[in-house]
């Protein structure tokens, strides 16, 4: 990362305008574009990692679009950027891993999580010093691929994906046998699947992100942007006006607030301006509860931030037989998992996509009994 900056005289070393002009005139446009694209991709990957870790749904989806555009523009992936590209692709798929209606591969049978597993395999090949964490994340992705299919009652597909996931090696056999037994029971809430939950997978991915960011601290664009923000005193206004995002269950993101405090302290130590404390805005009527990471990301993407407070305030509202019929009709038309579409086309009484999902789970249990 640092080598690209060093190859641009007058930019990284603070040279004069004449040296910049002469350098630009001598450099081929294609080379300039390649270096700039490399800086941008590194910066975008850093943003994706940060917003994934902080559950900043709207911001994550915004940077996802930028990352996909940059990656699509690569004719081939340079060796030194492979980890960056693979990690971006992994995070995008993990964040949407429960949306079986989404397709990232030409083969329609490949779910987002199964696609994520292929990129995790590529990441594993790029490094060898995190064997334990690699294995933990691999197993969690494999288990959740099966679990997500079962949660959506796609038991036949769960059995098919199990055959694709596991080889005949002795090391894979115990887990393969356990998952095959679970699929036969048609119960997505067995202890094994609950112990290796999606939230645990997200937590392990966040641990990997933390290590990745520590190894890639010399991000050129971030360094230059930091210098500019500090020199212009722009950080104070940004922190004052920036609200703390609230997740689905009404709990302010502690990590976000801690990061804001650190940013404020950093800027204060490097500038003489007076900075007011950032204001954390909470919606009224919210009570802190344990967060559910993936649902927070998906709800922000599909139905907007207003649904967060609505889901909390309407949680105890009883379902009517008419609403149940609307839900069943929507599932038949759009399929299990497409809760936002079902909500948009159905006649529900102040419901949210999360509430539709929970109600479908309840109806499925009733049908089984």
Would you write up a description of this structure?
The structure is a single chain. The protein is mostly helical. It contains 19 helices and no strands. It is globular. The model is unreliable at 1-17, 239-254 and 266-315 (pLDDT under 50).
Please give a handful of descriptors for the protein shown:
globular, mainly alpha
Tally of extended strands?
Answer: 0
- Summarize model confidence as the mean pLDDT: 75
The main β sheet shows up as: none
Q: Give the fraction of residues assigned to helices.
A: 55-70%
N- to C-terminal distance: 58 Å
Kindly estimate the percentage of residues that lie in beta strands according to DSSP. under 5%
Question: Gyration radius, to the nearest Å?
Answer: 23 Å
Total DSSP helices? 19
Order of helices and strands: HHHHHHHHHHHHHHHHHHH
Content-based structural category? mainly alpha
| Gross morphology | globular
* Uncertain spans: 1-17, 239-254, 266-315
Care to give the gist of this entry?
The chain has 369 residues and is mainly α.
Could you outline the blueprint of secondary structure elements for this entry?
Elements: H1 2-6, H2 17-26, H3 29-54, H4 57-72, H5 82-95, H6 112-126, H7 131-151, H8 155-165, H9 173-185, H10 191-195, H11 198-215, H12 220-232, H13 235-241, H14 254-270, H15 293-302, H16 306-313, H17 321-334, H18 339-345, H19 353-368
């Amino acid at each position: 990362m640092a080598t690209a900056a060093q190859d641009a005289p007058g930019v990284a070393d603070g040279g004069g305008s004449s040296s910049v002009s002469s350098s630009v005139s001598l450099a081929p446009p294609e080379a300039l574009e390649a270096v700039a694209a490399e800086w941008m991709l590194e910066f975008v990957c850093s943003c994706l990692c940060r917003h994934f870790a902080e559950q900043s749904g709207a911001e994550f989806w915004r940077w996802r679009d930028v990352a996909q555009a940059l990656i699509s523009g690569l004719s081939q992936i340079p060796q030194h950027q492979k980890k960056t590209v693979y990690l971006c692709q992994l995070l995008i798929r993990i964040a949407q891993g429960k949306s079986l209606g989404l397709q990232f591969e030409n083969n329609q049978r490949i779910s987002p999580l199964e696609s994520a597993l292929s990129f995790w395999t590529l990441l594993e090949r790029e490094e060898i010093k995190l064997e334990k964490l690699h294995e933990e994340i691999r197993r969690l992705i494999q288990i959740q691929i099966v679990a997500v299919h079962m949660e959506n009652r796609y038991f036949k597909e769960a059995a098919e994906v199990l055959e694709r996931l596991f080889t005949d090696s002795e090391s894979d056999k115990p887990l393969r046998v356990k998952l095959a037994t679970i699929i036969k029971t048609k119960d997505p809430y067995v202890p094994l699947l609950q112990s290796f939950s999606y939230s645990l997978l997200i937590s392990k991915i966040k641990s990997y992100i933390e290590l990745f960011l520590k190894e890639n601290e010399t991000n050129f664009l971030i360094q230059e942007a930091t210098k500019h923000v500090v020199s212009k005193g722009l950080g104070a206004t940004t922190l004052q006006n920036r609200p703390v995002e609230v997740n689905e269950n009404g709990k302010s993101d502690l990590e976000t607030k801690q990061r804001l405090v650190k940013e404020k302290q950093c800027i204060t130590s490097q500038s003489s301006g007076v900075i007011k404390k950032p204001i954390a805005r909470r919606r009224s009527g919210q009570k802190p509860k344990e967060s559910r990471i993936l649902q927070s990301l998906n709800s922000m993407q599909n139905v907007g931030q207003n649904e967060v407070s609505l889901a909390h305030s309407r949680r105890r509202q009883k379902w009517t037989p008419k609403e149940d019929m609307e839900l069943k009709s929507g599932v038949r038309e759009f399929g299990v998992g497409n809760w936002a579409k079902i909500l948009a086309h159905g006649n529900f009484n102040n419901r949210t996509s999360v509430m539709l999902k929970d109600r479908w789970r309840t109806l499925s249990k009733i049908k089984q009994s």
